[in-house]
Hints:
Layout: H1 3-17, H2 23-26, H3 69-91, H4 95-121, E1 126-127, H5 129-142, H6 147-159, H7 174-178, H8 188-194, H9 200-203, H10 206-213, H11 215-235, H12 239-262, H13 283-288, H14 295-300, H15 317-327, E2 331-332, H16 339-349, H17 366-371
Helix pairs in contact: 3-12, 4-5, 4-6, 4-12, 5-11, 11-12
The structure holds zinc ion (ZN) (2 copies).
GO biological process, one term: unsaturated fatty acid biosynthetic process
Cofactor: Fe(2+)
Keywords: Fatty acid biosynthesis, Fatty acid metabolism, Iron, Lipid biosynthesis, Lipid metabolism, Membrane, Metal-binding, Oxidoreductase, Transmembrane, Transmembrane helix
Amino acid sequence: MDFLDFQSEIKNCRERTLGLEDKSKMAPKSSNAADVNGVLFESDALTPDMALPITPVQRADKQPRQFVWRNITLFAYLHIAAIYGGYLFLFSAKWQTDLFAYILYVISGLGITAGAHRLWAHKSYKAKWPLRLILVIFNTVAFQDSAIDWARDHRMHHKYSETDADPHNATRGFFFSHIGWLLVKKHPEIKEKGKGLDISDLYADPILRFQKKYYLILMPLACFILPTVIPVYCWGETWTNAYFVAAMFRYAFILNVTWLVNSAAHKWGDKPYDKAIKPSENISVSVFALGEGFHNYHHTFPWDYKTAELGNNRLNFTTNFINFFAKIGWAYDLKTVSDDIIKQRVKRTGDGSHHLWGWGDEDHEKSEKDAAIRINPKDD
Ligand SMILES: [Zn+2]
Ligand SMILES: [Zn+2]
């Protein structure tokens, strides 16, 4: 498709969403077109390069915040305990306890990235029940609310990205998108627009229903009690070290790593796929968040199980984890995006930083290169 065809196709799509054509056929399944600010599922996309025919906006109103003092107190306690736990991790705990805390960090991370995020929120692959069971156990260790609630919030985050209906709206700043959103009452728009969100697929899974129903028993066991008891009884660790290192420090660490995806990866990094949105390619976040920092790609194509293009797998532990289970048949129907669509999108909406389709690629004409303003150039 050449550029003019492509432009006219976008124009047609825009007309379709404005109701000039039969809207019921074109309306995205998970959205009411007037309000959405980002694609959530593949079926939402309306342009040939899988976008919405709108320019995304960033919006936050100025209404006063209502503090939730219970959460402020609990998070303050957690972080003070975690700093002490970090000290004990380095200078006091047995190496088995440190290793155990590291393993808990990885498995609870996977419970979020491979489970709540890529499997349940985005349906980017399917999993047989043994893998879903493993992931729900991992997810309970992470204590970031039940997977159903996590996936619901996250669908809002993509669909209404960076507006008041996004639970951690990055337009409100780094602190709000990191932890602040958990310290104040939710914006009324979240509840209002959340009513239109389809989460029936999540409730259809008996494993997820079980986790949600018994969450207040399962979560304390998985996140706090067992991580404290196991080091004491299995390798003779002290109660203090076990509790502050394997429970408090490890829990606060993975929480902050997850929050960095909402804060840092919505602020710093390149935007090779869509320069109109805040989410960015942040490699440092990817390292800690098991591959979840390629966030400009992820918000552009959220249904891709890799949350990144191929070639980034070295830093994408979660993708390797899913690939392993795909090999033994427990993960299947893995969705990804074709090179051709990525290329179209990079050219139309990217910021020019794409390593393959940016400066100096095979389609980059000499006249374009010559016309570019280059500061402090080196001959190439
Ligand atoms: Zn995001
Ligand atoms: Zn996502």
